[in-house]
Amino acid sequence: MRPLCLRSPRLTLPSHTCPSFQWLPLLPLHHSRPASHASQGRANKAAQGPGKRLGAKKGASELVVPGNIIFRQRGTHWFPGENCDMGRDHTIFAKEKGYVCFYKDPETNPKRKYIGVVFERGMKLPVPRNKPRNRRLGLVGREREMGTLASITPPRVTSGEGNEALEVGGMTEQGGTLRQQDKRTRAKMPELKQMGIRPGYQYRESNRHIGRVAERAQVKVGEFKKRGRFLAWRKVNARRTKRAEKKASRSRRKKGSKNKSKN
């Protein structure tokens, strides 16, 4: 391999010799390289990149659900109001299901603009200070039926022993069982067993009654035979089949991972 040599317009060196330190003052002091200032950053010439899609995402009186983004912004041009909140990037989103409302609240801050959510279309914000607030609290509003409420008696749970008849909220207990008839359909409800108060302030059946449900329902269960070899053989075969399926699935996963790594 031939040695590397430098050529200069001022000095021509033979091709078989390399420059030494005595020729360095005669070499050119300037060199050229491609400019790369523009690709190093955006300090001087900012690029016109795509926008961040800021602004209103939901209009006034538009239906939103919890988590819907209403307004994207950089800084606090708008502030969260009723049933709204602000994220760490100043994005305003809904906390309750309702309709969007843009408003100002002179009593709180006359210079700020707020975004809130109301439960009914047409409601106005801000709400006066002497007016009760509307909150959902995880409930749904429903009209009362006064006719049915007057006929229903409040539930009264009592516990007792023996076969004496007891009243439990319109139900009568006879012989340790509770029966209730629906007054509208006159259909018999299923039997309710006697429930007593248990640890943890719970009204439920005792574990002894729960464990004998199958016996009361006349469910026949075969007796366990210690020397039943046919049943043992079936269980062994089931375990072997399950073990083989697990092994096959593991081998398929390993083969798939190997094929992906090769590709």
What does this protein structure show overall?
With 263 residues, the chain is an alpha+beta fold. 19% of the residues lie in helices and 20% in strands. The strands form four sheets. The protein has a four-stranded antiparallel sheet with strand order 1-3-6-5, with no helix packed on it. The chain has a four-stranded mixed sheet with strand order 2-7-8-4, with no helix packed on it. The longest helix has 34 residues. The radius of gyration is 42 Å and the shape is flat. About 12% of the residues have low confidence.
Short overview:
By secondary structure, the chain is an alpha+beta fold.
Keywords:
263 residues; alpha+beta; flat; mitochondrion; 4-stranded antiparallel sheet; 4-stranded mixed sheet; 4 helices; 14 strands; Large ribosomal subunit protein bL27m
